[in-house]
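ok trying this again, last paste got cut off
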Amino acid sequence: MLRAIAAVCLVTPALGQPVEDPDLAEIATPIASIDPMHTEFDDLAFLHEAIGDARMVVLGEQSHGEGTVFLAKARLVKFLHQEMDFDVLCWESGMLGCMEMNDLLADETKSLSDAFAGVFPIWTRSAQVRPTLEYARASLATDRPITQCGMDAQVNSALGTNALQPRVQALLDTLQGVIVPAEATAGLELLKTMTGGMRPDLERVRQISTSLHALATLLDEHMETLREHNDKRELELIYRSVDDAAWATKFMASQLAGERMEDNPDLIRERDRRMGDNLAWLAETYYPDRKIIVWAATRHAVHRQKEIEYPDAPGMYDEMDSMGETAFVRLGEDLYTIGFTAGRGEVSNVFRNQPYDIGEPREDSIEASLDAIGHPFLFVDFRALPPEHALRKTQWMRPLGYAWQRAIWPHQMDAVIYLDRVFPSTAAESVPADFKLTVDGS
């Protein structure tokens, strides 16, 4: 494996002086390839020790618009599945809708896009995510198939909304003698219209939200009886789906009413809290004996968001308990979070017409220090750093949307993968002609 041997300088902004760190090149492990088709995994063998016994690995991303990162994540999914026995893939998308995808994936008459209809199209329409989707379906023919699930509280697919009504009714049928008010179930039918192509109407969405809140309250009031007559996992899954949908429709109503984030910050923060709680529940209760890969934005995955300094958005996240923090409190070192950052390049998700240039690394950043090593793909294991290492001091980095932030980054994630260049996510297969996904001679 290629080893870099350069010494670099980091800057500790709190002191304003550069910190000489001749060991950074040793702890920054080169990766030979980010090509999903490169299935010789010798260059990733270090992940066995880095991840250790963690049962959940979060693979972050900066902006949903990095085709380069999507390809790297596809290769990591293959490695984690083949080499470390991870066999659940959890998407930043609706929980029930993503679970419904498992039956569709097994149906060979369904196209790949139809089978993955529970996932936000910002990923499923990306050519660079497609290798992950194809691999997940192909795994069904192996002795260790990959199971799909989601953890988001948002309502984003007809798969989820269409499946919810009959499953709620099956629960209610076990409540003999309990009168279920019509207003408690009316929202379930209306909810399906929100993902069926009908333009959301503010009053209708408010009506749906009120109904779903009433339904969640009814289920909660009769939870003891429901547990006596229903499978615990199914019951909790459906309750969470109803309760999340009640929040999601309330959030949608606030958007339709023109409310700004600062008008109702608690409603915004609630999404992250719910995602983190869902993640922990999936690990502890729904898949207690399985290992889970999470596909999500790094902004949601950080462990102590309130400690991050956002010069471009002061105060925005001062009260935010991120998904990662909520999950980390419950899971501890069972959770291993990998963020991504980049030196330069352009990014754009599949719905943007014009890519934007992220610019060069600032001189006093972690990216500049990693760039000086001279290898295009590097892995830094924050969790394994010695207590007094320079990276355990406040540093500049831009793994969250490419805005420069200051933080003690080992407090925020367990590792980061540095790519010297990124290119956009595209609907058609596209890798810049001068971009090498594999390092020659590695």
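PB: full thing came through this time. The first strand starts at residue 8 and ends at 12.
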